[in-house]
Structures are given as structure tokens and as C-alpha cells.
Amino acid sequence: MLHKYFSWSEARRFYAIGLPIFIAQLSQTGMTFADTAIAGQYSAEHMAAVAVGSSVWVPVALLGIGCLLALPPLSAQMVGSGKPEKAAHLLRQGLWLTLGLSIVLMSFFYIASWRMESFGLQPEMARVSGGFLRAIMWGLPGFMLFVNLRSFLEGFARTRPAMIIGLIGLTINVPCNFIFVYGKFGMPELGGVGCGVATAISFWVMALSMLFYVRRDSKNTCLQPLFAPLWRKASPEGGVHADGNIEVQPRFDAALVWRVLRIGTPGALALFFEVSLFALSAILLAPLGTVMVAGHQIALNFGSLAFMVPLSLCMTVTIRVGRCLGAQQVERAQLVARTALILSVAFALAIACFTVLFRQEIVRIYTDNPEVMALAIHLLLFQAAYQVVDGLQVTGIGILRGYNDTRIISAICFIAYWVIGLPLGFVLARTNLLTPLMGAQGFWIAYIAALGFGALCYLLRVRFLHGLTPEAVLGRVRR
After folding, report:
1. DSSP strand E in 4-62: where?
2. What pLDDT, in 10s, does the model give residues 416-471?
3. What is the DSSP string of 250-310?
4. Sign of the alpha-carbon dihedral angle for 144, 66, 419, 444
5. Kindly report the CA angle at 167 between 97 and 352, in degrees rounded to 5?
6. How far apart are the first and last CA of the chain?
7. How many distinct helices (H) and strands (E) make up the chain?
8. How far apart are CA 163 and CA 150, in angstroms?
9. What tens digit of pLDDT does each residue of 139-189 get?
10. How many angstroms separate the CA atoms of 24 and 31, rounded?
């Protein structure tokens, strides 16, 4: 009976594919960890300013990056169907999409960076957070380029290059933080603004390293036409030259770009709704003082590190489900989904236990301020409590992306985070309507409620898809 719900062979595939993804994601989140920790050692005020700046940066940047999350399942489906040249053409369209999104989002960040006082910040905190935004926004095109190239390789289940390059980015980020935050080696002492400079540099190092790898790797023969001039003509469906090289249409493909946006935008909105709940909580807590924001940010930052485990599982299950459906293996895709859900619960329980046992040691990494430490240690208990529902909901999202069933994701996220989570969090944290004012603790209670609702809805949707006939499932995937 167990073999219908869990497969050790799939678990081993999750390990082989997912471990590099985990390390790559951990290295990227490690940059945020380094920003927070180093800014916290510089001063609690600068850490709070970076937290507020990040609260604007993260949800909006993820809104753009989320549009690209349609690329891995689409690429995997094309590879699974035996047409890797179409995955290369998909990558080309992702690059066009990156260019357009970068222009729009960078314009927003620039305007927002000069209006940080409108969030109720003190002048100095507004100056630092605005400077952080103006610095880190220059790294957005680089990071989106990295995501494009990584998505192409993930279609072939090749995840190690992103892992190695992610570690390179982290290796660059940490010393750059010290250099620009503290003004070492003749650089100006920028404080929290230096965190944005360091992260932007790291993003571009990662993007250029990935581009160099993809361009030079002999395994990527289907990419040869990708680097041809944009004006070169090609057949609508691509072709094969006499020398055996595969030709892929190098021109702008509006229909394919629209398909990427149609599939990716609901997931992007879902990411925006989810992350904006966490981001806005830091902004709404700002009037309660630096200690409240700093303690809350420590718990959030460690939570983002812990989140890399279920997120990596989410990305892996998307690749595996997409690959199985591309090969028309519907029952295998269902087994992959069930295995991922079981693994998510196991990992979540392990992370929760670790957080509870070592929460004091975790907080000491960030700060030695006794007031901030006391609050953060308390909030980590709530962070541990929501691990299971968080793991289930993000794994459910990964499964739905593998099925190209993304429209429902944004609707569920909107209800969970903006109808339930944000109002409930504000009422508990900033008012006395339901209980005496709870501060940051109120938002953490709201997080658990919102994530629990989302997890239930995603599991019901996965169950619905598993009840369809194979023909119906494949028909939905091809749309």
C-alpha cells in the first residue's frame, strides 16, 4: 500500500536534483542573511532600515521573478517530450521578458526609494532604506538573467551549475558587505546602503558566470543558435542544418512570451501576495520602534533560511512532475507528488525541532542587544510552529506548477494572505480589538492561520487533479 504514496526511487531523485537546488537557494538567501547580520552588527538602526528596504525590494522583485517560474516546468515538459531545441527557444523568449520586466520594476524601485518617509520612518532610517533600494535595484536584471539560464538547465534536471555559481555569489557577497558597510580598502563607509551594493554586485557575478558556463558547455549544443544575431531569419519551427546543428528560431516570439506570462503571472501574484504579507508586517511594525522591527526581522530572516528546504522541494517536484507529464507518465507524476508531500512533512518536523532547541544560539549570530534578543528568541517559537503548514503549502504550489495549473494559486494566495493574514495580523499586532496589543507576535499568529488555509486549499486542488483521467490531465498541460 505504501508504494502508492511514497517511492524511494523518487526520493533518491529528489536528493540528486534537489540537493543542488537547496544549496543554490541557500546561498542566495545567505546573501540576505549576510545583509541582515552584518547590518545588525553595524547598528540596530541600520538593520531595521535594511529590513524596511528589503520589505519593499523582496515582494516587488519576486513579482518579476515569479513570472519566470513558468520556465522550469515548460522547459522540463519540452525535454521530456524529446524536443530540447524548443527549450532553447523558450530561453530566448525568457531573456526578452527579463529585459522588459527589469525596466518596469527598476523604475518603480527608483521612485519608491525617494519616498520611504511615507512609511512612517524617521528621516535617518528613511535615508538608509532608500539608499539600500537604489543600490540593490541595479542587481535585478542580473538576477533575472541568472534565473532564466538556471531554468533552462533545470529542464534537463541539471541543477549543479546553479549550486556552484550560487556559492560563488555568496562568497563574493560576504566580503563585499564588510567592504562597503564598514568602508574597508578605501571604499566609503555606507552602512546599511553597502548591503545593497554588495548584493547587486553578487547578482551580476552570478549572472555572468552562468552565461559563461551555458555558452561554453559542450552539452548545450541546442543553444548554438541562441547566440546568433537577433535579426537572423529562421524557420518557424526551427530545423536541422546539414552539419547536424539544431537551429532554433532566434526572433521575438510573442505567442510564447504570452504563454510564459499567462502561466507564470498567477504564480508571480501568489509570490507577491505571500511575501508582501511578511514584508508589510515589518513596515507596519516600524512605528512600534527599532527593537520591535529588529527582533521581528531576525525571526523572519532565519525563517527565510529554513524556507529554503521546502522551497527546494517545491522546485524539484515542479521539474519532476513536468518531466513525467512531458513523457505522458501521468501515474508517475502522481507518485512524485505524493512522495514530495510526505518528504515535506518530515523535513518540516526536523527544522521545527532544530529551531526550538537552538533558538538562543541562532539569535546570537545576529545581535547582542538584550532587548532584541529576548523578542527574537520568543518569536522563533512561532516560526517553528508554522513549519509543517508552510512546507505543505509550498510543495502543493510546486505540484500545481508542474501541471501548469497556476491560475488557482493566485486566488488562494490572495485570500490566505490579504483577506485572512494581513487584516488579522494588523488587528492582533497594532490594535486592542481582539486582544491587548501583541506587537510582532500578532503577525506570527496570522502567518500560521494564513499558511494553514493555503495548505488545505492546495492539497484539495492536487487531489482534484489526481482524480482526473490521464487524457484530461495531458489536455490541461498542453493548453
Report:
1. none
2. 988 998 899 889 888 888 888 888 888 888 889 998 999 999 999 999 988 888 88
3. -S--HHHHHHHHHHHHHHHHHHHHHHHHHHHHHHHHGGG-HHHHHHHHHHHHHHHHHTHHH
4. negative
5. 95
6. 34
7. 19, 2
8. 10
9. 999 988 888 888 777 767 677 888 888 888 888 988 898 899 888 888 888
10. 11
